[in-house]
Amino acid sequence: MLRWKLNPQPLGARFGPRAIRAASARQGSFRGFNPRASLNPYTSWATILDCGDIPVTPFDNAVALDQMSQAFLQLGSYLPAYPGDPHTLGDVGKGRKPKLITLGGDHSVALPALRALNKIYGHPIAVLHFDAHLDTWDPSAYCTNWCSETSDFTHGSMFWIASNEGLILNGSSVHAGLRTRLGGDGWEDYDDDDRQGFLRISTDDIDEIGSKGVIKAILERIGTETPTYLSVDIDVIDPGLAPGTGTPEPGGWTTREMIQILRGIEGLNIVGADLVEVAPAYDNQGESTALAAAQLVYEIITSMVKRELVPRGTESGGGEL
What we know:
Layout: H1 16-23, H2 61-77, E1 100-103, H3 110-121, E2 126-130, H4 158-164, E3 173-178, H5 188-195, E4 198-202, H6 205-222, E5 227-233, H7 255-264, E6 269-276, H8 288-308
Parallel strand pairs: 1-6, 2-3, 2-5, 3-4, 5-6
Helix pairs in contact: 1-8, 2-3, 3-4, 6-7, 7-8
């Protein structure tokens, strides 16, 4: 008797960007002042634009990857625009580049973003990765009987691919919020992750060191000057609070803890970011997953704007986001 082992996966997160946009409808310049940062990111020095959706084919992963890579490179190569008062800005036109925040959507978008950043900046980028899962999985360890170079590219292998392409700054990168199971019967997944140079902070660590301890570990590892890509998988939050995601893992951080950590790392030199894996088909009636995602993006934007802002009168010139 032949038995077929089926491994059905939940619906994808293709409607995630739409849900996050809808959940951010209450955000805007009229009520955008962030008390913790003492600024309104929408009326400060930065021009904040919605660049729309990257058109990608759903039929060919290789073509989709190339489409995303070209789009990120094109958007990241534009000269930044800003409307603000030049007296509040620093270093206008001196190497400043646009900073893209990607809404997702599938987490695999991080690979084309890192490829583009490597070409734009000319060197590897540190990665700060909030996720329940490693996403540095070696695809050869998880493939079926029909493996291919195209099938290697998934939302769980993109950082493994990026690391092997030399896109990630080995020794200065961090996973935070981990609570994943590992493959096989041992520590091979962690051994491979060690080779890729990531520091691992588990979800349970917050019980021992608190949010401040998590913040301290991240800042000590990355520093405040290293160009960093911030990648946030919404499943870092407990599925009781953010159920709308494809691979939920019980025991995650609360939304409040995640917001507190993001606020604590506002000094990082974030050159690009994503908020991904929002799957509205699995969200609750109150759309708490999309609301949490919109709030996290708001906090990321606030920190990006605040870091580049200098006190009035202390510098001449300008800066851009």
